[in-house]
UniProtKB/TrEMBL annotation:
Keywords, in A-Z order: Membrane, Transmembrane, Transmembrane helix
Tree of life domain: Bacteria
Residue stretches spanning the membrane: 41-61, 81-101, 107-127
Protein name in UniProt: Uncharacterized protein
Source organism (scientific name): Nocardioides simplex
Keyword Transmembrane recorded: yes
């Protein structure tokens, strides 16, 4: 999977092209990603202090709204597995608490469900969706299909030419 610059941090971005960012197939379906991102240097503070990291994360966070072409079938699969992982983690914690209060031997074994849920959730995010991160002042879309990267770059180049019609194509 590849990464591609899609715009500036703190702005609303519509990713050009009609190629699904995850599968590389043509689509007219779009999904809106909302969230916040922090500069990479903030994560270094986690080594030194958790409070400093929390404070710096809150102060340096920048919001984003990105509209990306994404096949709804694949987006729905990610959502479904994410909900299952959350439910599995919650059930694991509840069963571990119940078992420890009830005096069931090896009650901590139920936390294995929670660990499994974390693994399922992380794996699901890596496989079934894209990431949004910050590099300097640029917004970067990560874990993107290589075919989609080409379509996005071509669409951004065409958009740049349309927004600057007086600039020659060779110098843009």
């Amino acid at each position: 999977m590849a990464a591609v610059v899609i715009g500036r941090v703190g702005t609303d971005v519509v990713v050009p092209g009609e190629v699904c960012v995850k599968t590389g197939v043509r689509t007219r379906e779009f999904v809106v990603l909302r969230g916040s991102t922090t500069p990479p240097w903030v994560h270094v503070l986690l080594i030194v202090t958790i409070v400093g990291w929390l404070w710096a994360s809150a102060m340096a966070a920048r919001r984003y709204r990105v509209e990306v072409p994404f096949v709804h079938r694949h987006w729905d699969r990610w959502q479904r597995i994410r909900r299952a992982a959350l439910l599995l983690g919650l059930v694991g914690v509840i069963l571990a608490c119940w078992a420890s209060v009830a005096g069931v031997p090896h009650s901590a074994a139920f936390l294995g469900l929670t660990v499994g849920a974390v693994v399922l959730g992380v794996g699901n995010s890596l496989v079934n969706t894209v990431g949004v991160t910050q590099r300097g002042d640029l917004l970067l879309l990560t874990r993107v299909d290589p075919d989609a990267v080409g379509a996005i770059r071509a669409g951004m180049t065409a958009a740049r030419r349309v927004s600057h019609p007086d600039v020659e194509a060779g110098s843009a």
